Amino acid sequence: MKSLTLLIGLILCGQLVAEAQTSLSSTNFLALDHQHTDGLCILYNPSSSNLLSLIAWQRDAGLDLPTNQVIFIGNTQAMLILPAGTPFGNAGQPFWILPQTQNPLLLYLGVNSERVPSGVFNGPLTIQLKQFTGPGYFMAWQATGPGQYNIRINTRDGIGSTDNFMPLIGSHEHFNWGFSTTGVYCATFQVSGQRIGEATNISSAESTFLFQILPLTPPTNYSSWAKGYWPPGFNPPTTASGGNPDGDDFKNLLEYAFNLSPTNASPATNAPLFSFVATNGQKYGALTYKRYQHALDLNYFPEVSSSLPGTWSPLTNPVSTILHSNGLTETVTVREGQIATTNQQRFFRLRVELR
User: Fold this and answer.
1) Which of 1, 73, 84, 120 has a CA that sits 20 to 30 A from residue 296's CA?
2) pTM of the model
3) In the chain, where does DSSP find H-type helix?
4) What is d(CA 67, CA 84) in angstroms, rounded to the nearest whole number?
5) What local confidence, expressed as pLDDT, does residue 17 receive?
6) pLDDT recorded at residue 347
7) Which fold has domain 2-24+269-354?
8) Contacts of 195 (CB under 8 A, 6+ apart)
9) Contact in structure between 127 and 164 (CB atoms under 8 Å)
10) Three-class DSSP category at 202
11) What is the DSSP string of 53-102?
12) What is the spatial distance between Cα 154 and Cα 164, in angstroms, rounded to a whole number?
């Protein structure tokens, strides 16, 4: 189990002292939701140990993006209702499509082999779907005429040898990319081909592309929460529960616990707060903190001690629980059982534990 502790403060003659935290340096990636991007772009480098590779080429900005530094977004405008007679699902079913014809509101995603030199390979290359995970199924196709579809990827019946793209050298094609429901999808591809004069194929390393089809459902564990912010394989020290890529007062585990963003600095006002509360005419020290309701793998432990270092005791007297309008978080206030007096020293902390 992993845990983080946030020391909120101490009562020392009525004074509140906050504890500062250290942070890591920031590391960036791109989330693309409307740009012209060749999401599966093949590179060939004869001087590299990996002769073939797959990247995302953001054509508008001229950026080569490793697959662990880009997220493809399907926003809410991608949803449509399927008519009868298509191979993509039942009539009346919602379906999310990133289209093969450019729409300025949606990601324009292509397959590209323009940067592979001619005269190297014997025929087209093959981009094979190797692995796939997601809350629904994923399909990629080209519309070739009214009611006619050239389907290249179809995970409705699993993954097989026919789930691939076969781009000709020097080509640039666009496809429809369809998803049956919202959520986070991971599609792992590998490109291979046979060079002229050789009898066997050469292959790239497997590369995983991350798609987020919006709106995302609330994650229920740290792993799915992190996947909503970072692509697979993205800088593990940054994405780990103890990382702090946005350099604010909250490490990732606390961002998760309080339903904050780990990629945009959150103000310190989101930290738990100490206060005095009155019960039956008596004053008590209390701790107020925000709790992410969907975090099924977290334990929250509000605690109090009379010294540092010292023995910590749980705060077990609830004062209030207020559900926020977003339905995701609630604000919890708990107090200690000892009546506050003028000259006493008390330390309060919130310990968050990842099971």
Assistant:
1) 73
2) 0.82
3) 222-227, 236-239, 252-257
4) 36
5) 27
6) 93
7) Immunoglobulin-like (2.60.40)
8) 120, 121, 122, 202
9) yes
10) strand
11) EEEEEETTTTEEE-GGGEEEEE-GGGEEE--TT-TTS-TT-EEEEE-SS-
12) 9
Prior bond to 309 cis, omega within 30? yes
Asked if residues 175 and 112 have their Cβ atoms less than 8 Å apart, the reply is no
Output 78-81 pairs: Cβ under 8 A, ≥24 positions apart: 78/106, 78/213
Domain locations along the chain:
2-24+269-354, 30-234
**Do residues 297 and 221 make contact, with C-beta atoms less than 8 angstroms apart?**
yes
Residue 185 near residue 137 (C-beta atoms within 8 A): no
What's the pLDDT at 16?
Answer: 27
**Contact assessment for residue 55 and residue 38, using Cβ atoms and an 8 Å cutoff:** no
Q: What is the DSSP string of 235-251?
A: -HHHHSTT--TT-SS--
Are 262 and 249 in contact, with CB atoms under 8 Å apart?
no
8 A C-beta contact, residue 189 and residue 206: yes
Are 350 and 295 contacting, i.e. CB atoms less than 8 angstroms apart?
no
- Contact of 128 with 164, CB cutoff 8 Å: yes
Question: Which residues of the chain fall short of a pLDDT of 70?
Answer: 1-27
Taking 3-state DSSP, the helix, strand and coil percentages for the chain, each rounded to the nearest 5, stand at 10, 45, 45
Pairing of strands 36-44, 52-58: antiparallel
Three-class SS string for 123-152?
CCCEEEEEEEECCCCEEEEEEEECCEEEEE
